[in-house]
Amino acid sequence: MSNNTKKFGTFEGVFTPTILTILGVIMYLRLGWVVGKAGFGGALIIILLANVVTMTTGLSLASIATNIRIGTGGLYALISRSLGLEVGSAIGIPLYISQTLSAALYITGFTEGWLSIFPEHNAIIISSIVLLTLLIVSLISTSLALKVQYLIMTILVLSLISFFLGKNDVPREIILMGDLSDTTFWKVFAIFFPAVTGISAGAAMSGDLKNSRKSLPRGILPGIGITMLLYIGVAYWFDYMATSKQLVENYAIMINLSRWPILIIGGILGATLSSALGSIIGSPRTLVALGRDKVIPFSTSFARLSKKGEPYFALIFTIVIVEFCLLLGNLNTLAPLLTMFFLITYAVVNLAVAIEKGINIPSFRPTFNIPLFVPVVGFFWTVFIMFLVNPIFALIALIFILVFYIYQVKKGIQAPWGDVRSGFFLALSEWAAKISINLPKNAKSWKPNLLIPIEDPQNMKTLNKFIRDISYPSGTLRFFSIKISETLTNEIPDPFSNENISDSNPQEKMEIKKLQDQLESFVSPLKSEGIFTVSTIIRCNDFFQGLNTVTQVSKGMFFPPNIMFLTMSKDPFKNKKLEQIVNIASSEHLGLCILSQHGKNNFDNHKIINVWLRRGSPNSHLALLIALQLKKNWEGQIRLILVINDETNRTAGTKFLAKMAEKARLPIDSEKLILSGEFKDILKNTITGDLNIFGMTARVKGFTMQEITGISTASCIFVKDSGEESIMA
Question: What is the pTM of this model?
Answer without folding.
Answer: 0.67
